[in-house]
Here is the input.
Amino acid sequence: MINKLKEIKNRYDFLSQEIAKPETMADMDQWRKLVKEHASMEEVAHEYDKYAAMEQEAEDLRSMLNDPEMGELAEEELRELEKELMEAQERIRILLLPKDENDDKNVVMEIRAGTGGEEAALFGGDLYRMYQRYAERHGFKTELMSLSEADMGGIKEVIFVIAGKGAYSRLKFESGVHRVQRVPETESQGRIHTSAATVAVLPEAEDVEVEISQNDIRVDVYRSGGHGGQSVNTTDSAVRITHLPTGLVVTCQDEKSQLKNKEKAMRVLKSRLLDHIKRQQDDEMSQNRRSQVGSGDRSERIRTYNFPQGRVSDHRINLTLYKLPAFMDGDMDEMIEALIVQERAELLSASGESL
Here is the structure.
């Protein structure tokens, strides 16, 4: 591990000099690439500098232990310093964990009503509002891509983007089946019903990551249809894009402009295609190397929202919070932080490395 840290520090120092050179800055694409690599190493390099300085100080104190005058004081300082060294080692181990290359990206979220009819659609709408509130709390921006409403005001399906640095790192654990237990407004006898909605969380693809040939897609345009059969507009502005090699289909009709609908549909298609490629790669990996928290299996029931008891339970980490109203208002950080800690613990256990 120390050798790995030294390599990172040497590379960081080299890049510090390289990005300051005029000849490097002349090639902006290459310069941006080096600056990004430099920034990714900065925290580790600085933490290693502090660790190395503490190690040297510890060596100096050890050499003083047999000194008749300074030995007792040196022993006391060394005990405190060794605690700080252990804490620094843990911080470095966490910093050296494999990074999810998508963590800093925006997310494309898809919510679909599952079992439970109109109640499932109403719950889908509740989840959509919950993620909007969460985005607001973190200063993220939300952009609606596609919306299909149900008859009673719920949502059959909604696709939207949450944009902001680190959005994917915090929301990637939301993929899966979300179950709700509550008494529907239409239930006259007060019986609790169980319904579900599925959530998919995809990192938004960048153009350089996914190239789609025009020969691989079929674009169909048609007239938009509104809620209850109303006409959204009288032009063929709705767009359906089919990716022929994979069969992925994306529709968008929320904009009045056919061009804007096509642009939005292509953004969603690229993100789904990136996710498709990533899942194929994941399937080739050993199951033991995949995080159980962040596997993103959309058929897995990950969470239950129990309204009569005011609780929300995440089944992957066995955590129950009795703050359901606040949670549904976007106060999700306690749950998300616990999921991040669990993933980190799994990765640390798998790495088995020490300084």
Notes: The mean pLDDT is 87.
